[in-house]
Amino acid sequence: MKKITLLISGLVLSTIVSTTSAQQLPNIGFENWKTACGNSDQIDGNGVATARQRPGVEPTDWNGSNVRQVVGLEAKNDKLVTQASGYSGNSGNSVCLTNIKVGMNLGIVFIGDEAPGYITFGTPWVYASKTLEECDGGTYGGLNFAYSPDAVSAYFKRTATNPSEKSYVIAYLWNGTFESKVGKKGAANGDKNDVDRAVLASANIKEIPSATAVAGNGNLVAYCNHSFTSTTNNDWQELTIPLTYKTTSTDPSKMNIIICAGDYWNRNNLTENTRLYVDDVKYLYYSRLSSLSVGGYNVPLKDGVYDYVAYDAVNPTDPEYTFLGGAPTKTVTWSND
């Protein structure tokens, strides 16, 4: 019997959360807040975008879905994205996302529809109309980002009047540029690059609305499109959501995250006052193996253990191993004695 010692030097058998600012999300705990919100784009019937400053407040580095739009009269609501207390044991801040019906009160009749409470690194856009079936919205753009995380992690607390309604955590990393149209549902004619549904089109996720005239040289690298309908006891719960890598042959150069209280992809499913609290949104970078074998012997893995002894009746072969997580930038070194 030949004794083989595998030295997994350079490989930490535990989950590593990078603290390098370039590799991590900005303002992950929502401790910092803007004194004035950024702009969202309202698309008109000719496809022209008008930038309108959102009311209320929102977390620094993020953009929220607070509403300021004009369809004859101006409609405003600053309650879709608000500041709240942090998760249990955390004395800091969190963000509260709420679905709210937004529109115009014409005295005896209210013309409007549910709007989703969400935050994103991209820019929200909306097509608003008195004909509700024509209304649409979403997000385009994101942040420059050249790293390959394995998962998204955050704390959530969800309360909802409709327990079947979904909340969403959406993340996607890509390179190049996706060209597509936004605007009136069914007749979009405004040009925007890197629209959420266009970037994710090649992932073939059925619930995502089809993008109009996707072109350009964009390449989806990794994504998640995670939905959930509750958190434990309607209280804070930490969720870890893995990213699916569509390709490992190219690195991303951009990324975006969207977190929505309600059904981000289908506004007909939004329910009034569905509320989602969010805290500590971060990327996870795994640096551990999910399996290891040598000479046909499967090595049981343990967190925090880096040296393993296996036995082989013949000459040792190179170890076979798989990594936890889908990111491609990992290596393992080994030796035998």
Description of the structure:
This protein is 1% helix and 46% strand. With 337 residues, the protein is mostly beta strands. The strands form 8 sheets. Strands 5, 12, 15, 17, 21, 23 and 24 form a 7-stranded antiparallel beta sheet that branches. Strands 2, 8, 9, 16, 22 and 25 form a 6-stranded antiparallel beta sheet that branches. 39% of the residues are buried. Residues 9-19 have low confidence and may be disordered.
Keywords for this entry:
337 residues; 1% helix; seven-stranded antiparallel beta sheet; mainly beta
% residues in beta strands = over 45%
Number of strands: 29
Global morphology = globular
* Alpha-carbon distance between the two ends: 12 Å
Summarize the main sheet: 7 strands, antiparallel
Average pLDDT level: 88
Helix/strand class: mainly beta
Give me the Rg, rounded.
23 Å
Given the structure, what is the number of helices? 1
Fraction of helical residues: under 10%
In sequence order, what are the helices and strands, one letter per element?
EEEEEEEEEEEEEEEEEEEHEEEEEEEEEE
Poorly predicted tracts of residues: 9-19
